[in-house]
Amino acid sequence: MKKKNDVKPIVIGVSGGSAAGKTTFTDILSDRLADFGPVVLNQDSYFRDWSALPEDEREIKRTANHPRAVLWKHLIAHVKCLREGQAIEMPPPGTRAFRRGDDPQKIVPEKLVIVEGHLIFSQEALRSLLDLKLFLEVDTHERVLRRMLRNTGSGMSLKDAVAWYRRDVIPNYRVYTEPTSAYADLIVPFEGDVQVAVDVVANGVRSMIHHR
The domain spanning residue 182 has which CATH number? Predict the structure, then answer.
């Protein structure tokens, strides 16, 4: 990792349940704070590659909602580097993106880093690196509807989408995502007109950066 400068970026964590709107919120927030050169790390980019496991074992262990789905060693190391103003390289080995052969990308931080994902508050080592922790709160029924629309819109059958939700999302959300809202510095309602909520957070982050 190459040292860029002595700038210490503000690091924000954005979490919430499946289909709570984390990526949408992060995109809008990044746009509001574009003058600070925000860098976004999506937890999903650190999902492990399950293909190395034997097929029978793979189907038993495969998950996207249990902490074992994420290569935390790489994610935490990358957040530490960005926090210190150091560049990182994506994608990390052992991830699905790495196996796909995604083009290597060098990421250099400026003044703001946003880490986004539904499991990120489950890891104390990662929480300790976050200057501000946000948890998006959305009615459960609304999240389920959003997820079903998203999954079926990307080609998954409704039957398969429901089966996966029952198998992986419901049992793990209750243990590894929902309780972590207790670690949040701010609970952000993210339904209906969300512009006010985003503006409030953006103004707060802008103030944090100016006072650092």
Answer: 3.40.50.300
